[in-house]
Design a protein that fits this description.
Layout lengths: L4 H13 L3 H13 L6 H10 L7 H9 L6 H6 L2 H18 L2 E3 L6 E3 L16
Antiparallel strand pairs: 1-2
Helix pairs in contact: 1-2, 3-4, 4-6
Bound molecules: zinc ion.
């Protein structure tokens, strides 16, 4: 018997509805083995709705690494805690770029946002 991801989701939904713990575990295990079988936002929403902590990480990591900004529609679907955690994780490298550093050209300390605030140099000293 081979189910695809959407079929296992239906199984999980039913197992949740009728409180069938054994079947629920099988469905979660099958979905887990597929790693990231659904579009990330869909999988994350689903994992939260049916309390499947095991299915949270792959979509979360995919969304952290994604190059496009989340759409308003995607943001509206996510629980606030996940949305917050996601934004914190996504903006972390950019905040790092804005930390105070010393310019290796004009040697002034200052906050950086991609370039030196004073002389426009693009690389900071590495500390
Ligand atoms: Zn400078």
């Amino acid at each position: 018997m081979t189910f695809d991801a959407d079929q296992w989701l239906s199984v999980l939904e039913m197992a949740h509805k009728y409180d069938m713990a054994g079947i629920r575990e099988i469905a979660i295990q099958e979905l887990k083995n597929m790693n990231l079988p659904l579009p990330p936002v869909k999988q994350l929403v689903f994992a939260r709705r049916y309390h499947c902590d095991e299915l949270v990480d792959p979509p979360f990591q995919a969304l952290v690494a994604r190059k496009e900004t989340l759409s308003k529609d995607e943001m509206a679907q996510l629980p606030l805690d996940d949305l917050h955690r996601l934004i914190v994780a996504r903006e972390k490298p950019f905040l790092k770029l804005m930390e105070e550093r010393r310019c290796n050209k004009c040697h002034l300390n200052g906050r950086w946002h991609l370039k030196c605030w004073n002389c426009g140099q693009l690389e900071a000293a590495p500390y």
